[in-house]
Amino acid sequence: MTFPLSAHPLVTDDALRRRLIALARRWLAHGAEAEDLVHDAYLRAADAELPPAGSGREAWLVTVLHHLCIDFLRRQGRYKALLAQAAEETGHALDGDSPRHQVDRALRVEAALAHLSRTLAPGDAAVVMLYEIFEFTHAELGAMAGRSEDASRQHLHRLLRRLRATPPAPRRVEDDEDEDAVYLFALCRHALAQRDPGGLIAVLRASTPQAIASLANAAPGGWASTQAMAVADSLHQNSLSQSCLLQGN
Question: Entry's Pfam families (predicted)?
Answer without folding.
Answer: Sigma70_r2 (PF04542)
